[in-house]
Structures are given as C-alpha cells and as structure tokens.
Amino acid sequence: MTRGRQWEKVEKPLLDLLFDCSPHPTLDIARKCFQEQHIQDAAISVAEKVRLAGNDLHGTGPAHYDGFLVGAVGIGLKPSAGRKNGYTWCAYADHNTKPHQKDTKYCGEMRVMRTADEEECICFVGIVVVGNLRKEDKTRTLHPCEACRALMRRKYRFLFHPTTIVLTATPGAKIREVHTVEALMNAHLERWP
Questions:
Q1: Rounded to the nearest 5°, which phi and psi values hold at 70?
Q2: Cα separation of 192 and 141, whole Å?
Q3: Taking the mean position of all CA atoms in its chain, how far away is CA 93?
Q4: Domains along the sequence of the chain with CATH
Q5: What does residue 69 show for φ and ψ, rounded to 5 degrees?
Q6: Which pTM was predicted?
C-alpha cells in the first residue's frame, strides 16, 4: 500500500524549514541541517502532533496500548526528479497502532521506515521518536524498541548510516536525547553492522 498522505499537511512546515536550510541538499548538507536546533524542534513538534492524532484516530484504553502513544518522524533524502544526480528532502511522520488487544503492535518508527521505503527515500539523516516512558524502560527518553532496532539493522539498513541521528524526546520535549544510530545500538548492547 502506498502512503495515504494523511500526514502531508503536518509534515509540510518541517519540509519548508528543510528547503529553507538547503533547496538542493547533498548528504553532508542534509546532516548539517538536521543538527540545527530549530529543525530538530520542528521535527519534535511533528512527532508530537501525530502522536496525539493517534489518540484521536484510535482512542485509548487496552485496544490502543492502554494509552501508550508514540509519534515518529524520519527525515531524509530521495532522488530529485528535476535534477540529475540530485536529491530532494523527504519527511515521513506516523504514530504507533495496535487496534485490538491481541493484534501485533506496529510502532510509529516501523511505519515511518516502511513509508520511506515505499516512497524511494535513499537515506535518513535523522529519525525522531516522541513518547512517554513505560515502566520497563530504563532510559531517560523512549528509544526505538528492540523490534524497531532490528528493522533498522536489517530490513531497512539502507536507510541508515552509522552517523544517522536518532533524536528521542518526552512529550513536550522536556527531556531530549541525541544519539547516532550506532551509539543507540551500542547503548542497547547491539552491534551496528
């Protein structure tokens, strides 16, 4: 299924900032742009909006993670249709879903990676995760879960570089952490390929 573009309006202000930073990004320029505070703030804002929209769309309670809501945004590059050997920005936002108690979870990060693959994104310069910590979490902010990290290392490996930024934040961005994908894996005692 190709993306329904349900978050296009939410993603647009972030994309506008990225194009302001560089209308014709290279990978190095894209990495520098994502390190800018106002770009990270905008990405967190998008993740927060889709996180809360997940509540509106699916309700709360046991049918939806017992109110556990997560928003994710992937920011990357894809080939530019108008430029030979050029790239354009892409941003994909989504939230976690688990419509029924017995259903398998589908994390926001999983949905973002799948959409990026479908939309021919060639790499992420950053991925943002916003959500509340669960009782079992031992980190200051919500990190991508074990299943998401496995997808990052295997199926969607092509989207990530060891220096891809993983920005995690609590709702309202009261606490935020910035890791490279390699450092994130190491923090969870996992090897980055």
A1: -130, 135
A2: 21
A3: 6
A4: 8-187 (3.40.140.10)
A5: -115, 135
A6: 0.89
